[in-house]
Amino acid sequence: MSVFLSALDQVWEPFVLILGLIFIGHASASDGLFNSIGARLANLPGGGVSLFVYMMVLVAVVTATLNLDTSVVFLTPILLHTARHRGVDERAFLYGSIFMANAASLLLLGSNLTNILVFTGRNVRGVEFTRTMLWAWITSVVITTLVVVAWNWKPLRSKVVSDKEIPPPFRIGVGLISLGVATVLMLAVRNAALPVVIVGVAAEFVEIVILRRTTVRQSTKVANVPLLAVLFALALAVASLARVWHYPAHVMASAGTWATGAIGAGSANVINNLPAAALLSSRLPAHPYQLLLGLDLGPNLCVIGAMSSLLWLRIARQNGAHPSARTFSQIGIVVTGLTLVVALAVT
């Protein structure tokens, strides 16, 4: 029982946090925040390359503040709509949305579930984490953008439709307010999961009961509770295993910085980065930040590497796109290799 409780103590926090952030993202979407910003960026001057860069900046910022899974759920449809409306080949926007979500998930503890799994109980403040990962985040965002632009250079350079759309109204509502509060909490509080989920539940309560802009069923669907439950159970099982099988902890205690990053990336693509994080961090590894670089950037190699990629497949297909796991890996091997090497070098 003590093994189970110890594993539960490590695993519950990130899943509670992501639930709160998804609710906050849902409230922000109901306020029209993402649609409004996306439309305004789409109307900025420039061709297909400029349009793509604008959208990658949006994905990077939303990923950092609202978690990569929230970014994938709410921004993938906006990026596809923007490409189609402006007459630009949508492939760069489709694959860029997920590559950037994974690459930009390094900045805050709450940007990726794996960040919290590794640092649960480590007493690290959000500001300290962000300071350490800042240059890795910047370089990963820039490299990911450049690789996808180079891959789709000719299609992105084609003439874009000049027709501009009227942006939906921008409201300062419960979504934006709760987003601001959650960001401050993640930076200032060592264990922000409970405060953030309280903010998220409160925001969703206002949306459902007071504003009546959504329903409990829609809220549950957006949060993708079944997938969260499966991944939680898997992470809990692996975290329990790690407490009786000490070999992974011994390996991580003795591995160097480059080996740690490589082990994190490889494990993520074999068993998914959430259970990999639970397995490799049951005891504090010698190089936790380098482990996170592997766990966060590694999933851009294989579509099964992260929950965000699985969500992306579902959302993309729902919006009429045709993502390919083979294409994902063909481009992802370049994105992963370059971002991981440079991020390890600057951290």
Write the layout of secondary structure elements.
Blueprint (H helix, E strand, L loop, with lengths): L1 H29 L2 H10 L5 H19 L1 H18 L5 H13 L9 H7 L6 H26 L1 H5 L16 H15 L4 H18 L5 H8 L1 H18 L4 H8 L2 H15 L1 H8 L7 H10 L9 H12 L6 H22 L1
Provide an overview of this structure.
Helices cover 75% and strands 0% of the residues. The protein is mostly helical and 347 residues long. The chain has one domain. α2 runs antiparallel to α3, α3 runs parallel beside α5 (91-103) and α12 (225-242) runs parallel beside α15 (273-280). The longest helix is centred in the first third of the chain and has 29 residues, at 2-30. The model has no long low-confidence stretch (mean pLDDT 89).
Which key terms come to mind for this protein?
single chain, 347 residues, mainly alpha, 18 helices, globular
Coarse structural class: mainly alpha
Helical fraction: over 70%
Rg (C-alpha, Å): 19 Å
Helix and strand sequence: HHHHHHHHHHHHHHHHHH
Largest sheet: none
Average predicted confidence as pLDDT = 89
Total domain modules: 1
* N-to-C span: 38 Å
Specify the number of helices.
Answer: 18
Share in β-strands: under 5%
Number of E-state strands = 0
**Overall morphology:** globular
